[in-house]
Design brief:
Rossmann fold; 3 domains; 392 residues; alpha/beta
């Protein structure tokens, strides 16, 4: 149930500015006097604005005064699933005893709490007991407070009764400071001009930036023998496709080539992958699987995976699809999933960033690696290189 802390996410490494000034002040107040003023503390902001960094910073800050054993850090999925498991295995009393000794409860991504008839009364009781006993609660959310009313009704607890602070994307100068920090931590060597081209110019979310940089270092290890003089900028271009010409729509020849190839059904203990695609896009899904294999060959990789399933989802169904994807992937016992993004004109297409974020969080809670293929990038070599690095 508990989340491991990230050592590099502390107040010392947090770049403060106008984008997070109020959240920083509230977090410091919680560290100095937990359970007194800002309780619960709700930190909200779109993906990649630093919510998880704040969660870790608060935990590290509090551990110096009350000890790490008095702090329970989790996320919405793990907390609700953990309670369900405790109910199933008769461990509710042990969990209640554990939480009774805790002075601070921190829930990242509280919007992903999966409230059920079985766990509702326990979640409601423990959350309300924390506030009544002046024990600190800190939660983060991708969505603003007004969007949490349904969750509050379901769980029987007001996450918005305390103090609410938002995180915004930083301005250009602060963004570059954070970006440089990320690149230095991974020993990434690119020029300021290249950093602007790949990331800063578009103010890419830092959660995406961190993943891309990690993928770049992974790709470097794979291609170093074949491309001994490759630069970090070239590797990033291979993943982001900034120099790619628009590939256009799939042709009949593209689909014919893909239909002649069949994925391996060999039981591979190394990799078992599944693919989800929007309803009506089975041929595009087959092309995507074919293209992943072809790109792997071009890069000199041999990811011998078994293709466990190819499953469709309804891109016009606004609610529940990420949970269906996570549950299906878990039931089929895969360790990697490719999701073809929704059509831009669909209901989910209008909310693709949030859909992707929630789906990845849920898959991660099942220990399943995930890769996203936007509909518009079905013919992008860079997109398939990125998929491979996400999954291997």
């Amino acid at each position: 149930m508990e989340l491991p802390l990230i050592p590099t996410y502390s107040f010392q490494t947090l770049v403060a500015g106008s984008h997070n000034r109020f959240a920083h002040a509230a977090a410091m107040a919680v560290v100095e006097n937990p359970g007194v003023i800002y309780n619960p503390l709700l930190v909200f902001g779109v993906p990649g604005t630093g919510k998880t960094h704040f969660v870790n910073s608060i935990s590290y800050g509090l551990s110096a005064s009350i000890g790490q054993s008095s702090i329970f850090v989790t996320d919405g999925i793990k907390f609700s699933k953990g309670v369900e498991l405790a109910i199933k295995e008769g461990g509710v009393a042990r969990l209640e005893e554990l939480l009774g000794k805790v002075k601070v409860l921190i829930i990242d991504d509280v919007h992903l709490l999966m409230v059920s008839e079985a766990n509702k009364k326990y979640l409601s009781k423990w959350l309300n007991d924390f506030v009544a006993q002046n024990k600190q609660i800190v939660v983060t959310s991708v969505f603003p407070p007004k969007s949490l009313s349904g969750l509050e009704d379901a769980v029987g607890f007001q996450f918005t009764q305390g103090w609410m602070v938002d995180l915004k994307m930083p301005q250009a100068q602060a963004y570059k400071s954070i970006l440089n920090q990320l690149m230095q931590g991974l020993d990434v060597k690119i020029s300021d001009e290249e950093a602007n081209k790949f990331f800063a110019g578009a103010l890419a979310p830092f959660s995406d930036v961190g993943k891309i940089l990690e993928n770049m270092k992974k790709l470097e290890k794979f291609v170093i023998n074949a491309m001994s003089s490759v630069t970090h900028a070239q590797l990033l271009d291979m993943l982001l496709g900034t120099g790619e010409a628009p590939a256009g729509a799939l042709t009949d020849e593209d689909l014919r080539q893909a239909s002649s190839w069949k994925p391996s059904q060999v039981d591979s203990s190394w990799s078992k992958w599944g693919l989800f695609h929007p309803k009506g896009m089975r041929r595009e899904a087959d092309f995507a699987l074919y293209s992943v294999r072809e790109r792997a060959k071009e890069l000199g990789l041999n990811p011998d995976w078994s293709q466990v399933f190819t499953e469709e989802y309804d891109s016009d169904e606004l609610y529940g699809i990420p949970f269906k994807i996570g549950n299906f992937a878990s039931e089929r016992n895969v360790n990697g999933v490719i999701v073809i993004g929704p059509q831009p004109t669909s209901a989910l297409g209008a909310q693709e960033a949030e859909f992707r974020h929630i789906t990845f969080k849920i898959l991660d809670s099942f220990l399943v690696k995930s890769a996203w293929l936007p509909c518009a990038k079905l013919k992008s070599k860079a997109a398939y290189a990125k998929i491979l690095m996400d999954l291997v």
